[in-house]
Specification:
About 50% of the residues lie in helices and about 15% in strands. It folds into 2 domains: about 375 residues, Glycogen Phosphorylase B (Rossmann fold); about 250 residues, 3-Layer(aba) Sandwich (Rossmann fold). The protein is built from 33 helices and 23 strands. By secondary structure, it is of the alpha/beta class. β21, α25 and β22 form a beta-alpha-beta unit. α11 packs across α14. The N and C termini lie close together (about 10 Å). The chain is globular and about 90 Å long. Strands 1, 2, 5, 6, 9, 10, 11, 12, 16 and 17 form a 10-stranded mixed beta sheet that branches. The structure holds pyridoxal-5'-phosphate (PLP). Pyridoxal-5'-phosphate binds next to α6, α24 and α25.
């Protein structure tokens, strides 16, 4: 724990307000106060960071670098205070100044530098690396605009720019003295050096620069502070001077704007825009900056690049940074003068790749044309890698096995040649992992069986996890306190210990307190709902929450079909549907994803029908909370009774939302998909509602799927579908949901919504019945909290560290206590 020095904290705080902001203390606004606290906390972080770096250097510790286009880190103040162990003293200090820490925390803007699960995973990993005292740094992009802010107008999603005040964020340290100059565009001239060796020259290139910014990442117990390094693009001065000397001022300014635009905006996933050249340049920019920074650090302590992989591990978070294969080869061969074979051996031993998706449309390819234009030398290297690789494929599978060659080649032939980033990443890495057991199996069997048969030893699984510091301690402090009172506080560092809570499953007093924590969180969410969307909800109703990106495969539509069924049951049949229920949705749709946006509109229209109907709205409410983001997740998750994890089996790689909800005592209603399967293994089927087709059944059904058959078989489904078609939920905008109706009714509906409808309704009926026995429900919720220790990202990171990276903790427990 860091030691909280009251006096020096006070001095830092006051000096910041007076001398940096230039204000008397009593004129400081809330924002000023927030910045002043962050500044005072920042001093702790920096001191510990210096110690941490010294320790790594002294130990000559092997380092891992986590390359990711997204880091969805969330607010940092309360997490930093908690991890440093100075939350309570800081709150006391502020109270003396008349400031409430809880309110101040809400002033912090959520940095939205990611789309969802993939970026949030990267953030959890950084927390775990630091908390395990391991040398692991993140590399990413300092976007000016993060993921768009979502507002809702007449039930439709509207996107607004989210300007992240990255120039003024109190956590972001500008390293103005450091920069990397990066070549881009131009031509390769085939030349030879004086010994007659091939020496390509990258000529007529343009230059732009990357500037690093650091965010300190504090580990639990405040012993290790690592860093996340984010790069911003800028125009190169040298280049500008040339143009200025030509006297072309306008051209110089244009050039500056172009360079800076590279890190202007985070691309929303699932949008067509992601195929644009600028996105490719972003990927190149990240890789080029990160690899240069890694090399510079390596050269501070070492000089022999043949041993690079003994000191450095690089993890590629999805294929977005896969160009690292070519960039590392380029530096080792062109600049460090290693022979190709040695450079290749070093590159493969250094790099490792995480696959995040099986959806074929999400597999990244870039046209050879774009690579040739933007990074001609890298393209040349990729062709060379491919040629040597194809030779090995021929050795392994026979010289005339053209089918195998076509599948495995980095280059996809066709009207337009394309570079397959997944193939490049797999060939250039020594490890390829999926993110849940079932997903890793499908990677081997379905996605890339050819690569698996060539290199079975490369493939492995690392089931995702989430950090209990943010996802229990920070977001659910009353639950954390209850757990600590019961079993001590070591569970925060070692979540496996949380199983000790099982001892309380028959303790009525404990169960009552556990239930009371949930009830208080539900009340707080009810207040938030009232304040943000002006709806009243019954805090005693079942809070059933589906919060995640809006996507057809996640099946918000299936959830809606069931809600419409409940609505019609009350409205038409005048039947009792059991305990009152509040269905809460939250999530963003990619701006160009029309079906997902229409689903948001349907949620709102169903909500309007339900919530305004006095015959229904005491039993049922439907809420959509706009602008899903980390800080909103932190409110929703502790308040959930039921967690909706209902993707079509085989389509959700892992999910991490499912883990956060279960830890906080929500019971999952879910399919046998992604990490749901492993949650089931841990918590037991009596503590979960599993329904629907499994992966094999989905695969068997898909070619023969006939939605009409399900409608004919089930009158409830028929009624729901007819209601959708009849404009019952869109009287003032007839026909708007016709395309949703058509895709649900199409044998080509790859998400098989109707096939899981009947078992889904049955699972919800079981929930309604079980909820009426509150004590039993609390026991089962408690079993979810007690049995999800496996889903700590600490467990995940230990496995990456041991089995892929070869890095270790740099503090031993026995040195400490
Ligand atoms: C955890 C999290 C996600 C991922 O949720 P899934 O249900 O796994 O898709 C997305 N966005 C935010 C803000 C999160 O906290």
């Amino acid at each position: 724990m860091a030691y909280f020095d009251f006096t020096s904290f006070e001095v830092s705080f006051q000096q910041y307000v007076k001398y940096v902001l230039g204000k008397p203390l009593d004129e400081a606004t809330k924002k000023d106060q927030l910045n002043a606290v962050c500044y005072a906390v920042g001093k702790y972080l920096m001191d510990i960071h210096f110690d941490t770096r010294k320790r790594y250097e002294k130990n000559k510790a092997k380092q891992v670098y986590y390359l990711s286009m997204e880091f969805l880190i969330g607010r940092l103040l309360s997490n930093n205070l908690l991890n440093l162990g100075i939350f309570d003293p800081c709150a006391r200090f502020l109270k003396k100044q008349g400031i409430d820490l809880e309110t101040l925390v809400e002033e912090e803007q959520d940095p939205a530098l990611g789309n969802g699960g993939l970026g949030r995973l990267a953030a959890c990993f950084l927390d775990s690396l630091a908390s395990l005292d391991m040398p692991g740094y993140g590399y990413g992009i300092n976007y000016d605009y993060g993921l768009f802010r979502q507002t809702i107008v007449n039930g439709y999603q509207q996107e607004r720019p989210d300007y992240w005040p990255n120039r003024s964020s109190p956590w972001l340290i500008r390293r103005s003295e450091e920069k990397y100059v990066l070549p881009i565009y131009g031509k390769i001239e085939e030349r030879q050096d004086k010994n007659g060796h091939y020496k390509p020259m990258w000529t007529r290139k343009k230059l732009f620069i990357g500037r690093p910014h650091d965010i300190m990442i504090a580990g639990h117990r405040g012993r290790t502070v690592n860093r996340l390094r984010l790069f911003s693009a800028a125009a190169s001065k040298d280049f500008d001077i040339d143009i200025f000397n030509d006297g072309d001022y306008i051209k110089a300014v244009k050039r500056k704007i172009q360079s800076e635009s590279v890190t202007k905006i985070l691309y929303p996933s699932d949008s067509k825009e992601t195929g644009k050249e600028l996105r490719f340049i972003q990927e190149y920019f990240l890789v080029a900056c990160a690899i240069r920074d890694i090399i510079r650090k390596f050269e501070k302590q070492h000089s022999d690049f043949e041993t690079f992989h003994d000191h450095v591990a690089i993890q590629l978070n999805d294929t977005h940074p896969a160009l690292a294969v070519a960039e590392l080869m380029r530096i080792l061969v062109d600049e460090k003068k290693l022979v190709w074979e040695t450079a290749w051996d070093v590159t493969v031993k250094t790099l490792a790749f995480t696959n995040h998706t099986l959806l074929p449309e999400a597999l990244e390819t870039w046209s050879v044309y774009i690579l040739n234009k933007v990074v001609p030398r890298h393209l040349q290297i990729i062709f060379e890698i491919n040629q040597r690789f194809i030779a090995r494929v021929k050795e392994r599978f026979g010289p005339d096995n053209h089918e195998m060659i076509a599948k495995m080649s980095i280059i996809q032939e066709g009207d337009e040649q394309k570079v397959r980033m997944a193939n490049l990443a797999i060939i250039g890495s020594h490890s390829v992992n999926g993110v849940a057991k079932i997903h890793s199996d499908l990677v081997k069997k379905q996605l890339v069986p050819e690569f698996y048969s060539m290199w079975p030893e490369k493939f492995n699984n690392k089931t995702n996890g989430v950090t209990p510091r943010r996802w229990i301690v920070a977001c659910n402090p009353e639950l954390a306190k209850l757990i600590t009172d019961a079993i001590g506080r070591r569970w925060i560092a070692d979540l496996d210990l949380i199983w000790e809570l099982e001892a309380f499953q028959n303790d009525p007093g404990f169960l009552e307190r556990y239930g009371a924590v949930k009830q208080a969180n539900k009340q707080a969410l009810a207040d938030y709902i009232r304040d943000t969307v002006s709806e009243t909800v019954d805090p005693l109703s079942i809070f059933d929450i589906q919060a995640k990106r809006i996507h057809e495969y996640k099946r918000q539509l299936l959830n809606l079909l069931h809600i419409m069924h409940l609505y019609l049951t009350v409205k038409e049949d005048k039947k009792d549907i059991g305990p009152p229920r509040t269905f809460i949705f939250s999530g963003k749709a990619a701006p160009g994803y029309h079906t997902a946006k229409l689903i948001i509109k349907l949620i709102h229209n169903v909500a309007h029908a339900v919530n305004t109907d006095p015959a229904v709205n005491r039993q049922l409410k439907v809420i959509f909370l706009p602008d899903y983001r980390v800080s909103l997740a932190e409110r929703l998750i502790p308040a959930a009774d039921v967690s909706e994890q209902i993707s079509t089996a085989g389509m959700e790689a892992s999910g991490t939302g499912n883990m956060k909800f279960a830890m906080n005592g929500a019971l999952t209603i879910g399919t046998l998909d992604g990490a749901n399967i492993e949650i089931l293994e841990q918590v037991g089927k009596e503590n979960m509602y599993i329904f629907g087709l499994d992966v094999d059944e989905v695969a068997a059904l898909r070619p023969n799927y006939q939605p009409k058959e399900y409608i004919e078989k089930d009158d409830r489904l028929k009624r729901v579908i007819y209601a959708l078609r009849s404009d019952r939920f869109s009287p003032s905008e007839p026909g708007i949901f016709r395309s949703l109706y058509n895709s649900l009714m199409s044998p080509g509906d790859s998400y098989l919504n109707f096939a899981d409808f009947i078992p889904y309704v049955a699972a919800h009926q079981a929930i309604a019945n079980d909820y009426q026995q509150p004590e039993k429900w609390s026991t089962r919720a408690l079993m979810n909290t007690a049995r999800t220790g496996f889903f700590s990202s600490d467990r995940t990171i230990k496995a990456y560290a041991d089995e892929i990276w070869g890095i270790r903790a740099q503090i031993r427990e026995k040195d400490l206590w």
